[in-house]
Amino acid sequence: MSLHAVIARATVNAARVFNFGAEIGTLKPGAEADVSVLKLKDGEFTFTDSDGKTRTGPQKLEAVTTVKGGTVFEPTA
Question: What's the CA gap between 75 and 16, in Å, rounded?
Answer without folding.
Answer: 25
